[in-house]
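hey m, so remember when u said the tokens were messed up on ur end? i reran from scratch. heres the input so u can diff it against urs
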Amino acid sequence: MWLPESAQQLLVRLSTQMEAGASNYQKLDRYVDGKQHLRQLGLAIPPELERFTVIVNWPRVVAESRVDRLDMKGFRVGDNLQLADDAWQLWRSVGMDEDQSSYLDFEVYGRSFKVVELNGAGPLIENVSPIDIIEHRNPVTGSIDAALRRYRDVDSEDYMSAVAWRLYLPAATLTVSPSWQVISVESNPLGVVPVVPAYRNPRTTIPLHRAWPRIRGTSALADVIDLTDACARDLTNAQVAQETHAVPQRGVLGATKGDFVDDDGKPLTTWEAYFGRIWALKNANAKTFEFSSSSMENFERMVNLYARLASGVTGLPPNYFGLAADDAASADAIRSREAKLVKSIERDQRTLGRQAVETCRIVAGLVSGPAAMAAFDDADALWYDAGTPTVAQRADAVTKLYSVSDTAGRPLMPREMAWEELGWGPEKIARAKKLLEADETADYVYLKPEVDDGLRSDAPTGGSDSGEGPAAQGQPSGTSDDGIVAA
């Protein structure tokens, strides 16, 4: 079956936009991998000096440092704890809790996509690279009314050519061959496109200065690319200067080639002659001289300047860019330095959280019917604190919260909630509760009541100190054993 003309026109339109945006994605790919070329940096370096090229990979530092603070820990679906647990179990079963690829796409490209489908084994959630998927929005409502996905054979020489297409429409999903023949059609009972995008720092309207296709989202690398290029130029120039000016240059006047031979009379190579410790010249009038070396401090100052600028525009602390701290910063100072970064990550968490909730909503609709989607209207994705990315930092923060008590002596944070904040899963929490219950039961077994065995000196025996023994009970009130009335 051939693709209908209207659908074919839509497919051609979206595929053209996808191919037009490939150059921007390739540029971002090169920068995050540290593979940008010198000709892109505006340097005319001869081939023999290309070995001096130095690329400082700040874009990767920015992208990975942000992704390191994006850790989701579960869902909250109103007061429905069971549904929240089911959603998190589904998220873990498809590997979304450990797959950081979509978060890296989000930071590098400024957008990420999740696609929901049903197969024989159940729901399937896939992270699709923005290079291979694009959406179309209704210009009036702004909702997604179509999406196109490209399938490529990345191991072939022509790795950018499509081997198949998948066109997502509200009514159905069409799998199409490169020759526009329909391979399969799958109906969509929900009436929505099962593609969920997320855009980083979107604008109300796409900036007009952007070249066509004007895609949504802003890459986290956008502000650091030019600074990376400037630093690469400075370091490359420093490499060349290090070979030509940073060491004393020596010269000789009045010498001939015969002055630079070994013991066998063979000419010395350039490097052997240059690094020779002793020069013995036949010509008595030959003179040697030496140029003083140049200082490299100007290159170091420029690298430090670029690093501080990169720290300012990205919000990452200066030590992320190789600048050593001048002082032993306190915990409060460290938090102050990371405030801009943490706030930016929290905004990313909200955006990616909405994407995760919408993905679960579509899964619920495909599995249980459209009525089940309404349960996720009051759902939220839960994230670990972006300000405590490591396990040690998280444990320290949770311990401090748990140690704080109210006026009645109760901890501010319940014990089970503290376990959740530490990242313990439901199985580990259940095991911890059983172990604690077993310990408490064991404590009660070993606590014996006090029994008078007649041997302990502190047991009541009716002596004068006890006042409760049989002898004391048999005396009249106010008298002692010798008949003297007590005062």
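this time it looks ok to me. Residues 462-475, 477-487 have pLDDT under 50 and may be disordered. if urs says something different then somethings off w ur setup not the seq
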